[in-house]
Automatic annotation (TrEMBL):
SMART domains: Cpn10. InterPro entries: Chaperonin_GroES (IPR020818), Chaperonin_GroES_sf (IPR037124), Chaprnonin_Cpn10_CS (IPR018369), GroES-like_sf (IPR011032). The keyword Methyltransferase does not apply. It comes from Prototheca wickerhamii. Pfam families: Cpn10. GO terms for cellular component: chloroplast; mitochondrion. This is 20 kDa chaperonin, chloroplastic. HAMAP family: CH10. Keywords: Chaperone. It comes from the Eukaryota. Belongs to the GroES chaperonin family. The keyword Chaperone applies.
Amino acid sequence: MRMTIRAQAVQLPTEYKTIKPKGQLVLARVPEAQRKTSGGLYLPSSAQKAATTGTVVSVGDGRVDGRTHEFTVCADQTILYSKFGIGVTELEQGSDKFVLIREEDILGVLPRNGTPTSSIASLEPLHDRVLVKVESAAEESLGGVLLPESAKSKPVSGEVVAHGPGKVKKDGTLKPTRVKSGQRVVYFKYAGDSIEAEDGTRYVVLREQDILCTV
């Protein structure tokens, strides 16, 4: 089971009006956690979903290990980041909530004001990230017996919907992504971040290195 321990948000003094990220960090404003269901019911604190999207406010100066990082994201874009991102620093300034995150930990860019459930199919993955539409789990065993939910194998294959340009190496050069949209791939069972769209379609955003093969 994958677990993440998040520190409490850093509360900034109210006299500080500007937050300026450094290096390859990105500052994004995040919405409040989801407090209601789509039917209007209030959720208890334990059931509220933390935001994993944000609107880019600013980016750092790009200086990293003696070189200058070229940013892909820019101000006002809506980004999707990992709910397991241990590199995410949460900040609070009055009633405003922000995150500081390395650009390489951002999964991709969503349409403006998009949410993971409503617009995941339109995600533009960053760097070596790949968006895969997950194949449905088998409903029956090989003998034709209907499987209960607990007995269904976790899908490990799907169709590539979109991919980033590639991984930026330490020397600043680009290693292009090799998979292509439309290819069927098999990936490491526990890799990536799973997202379910409003219509029930499941997707996973993973790094290309977590893809085992194309079929």
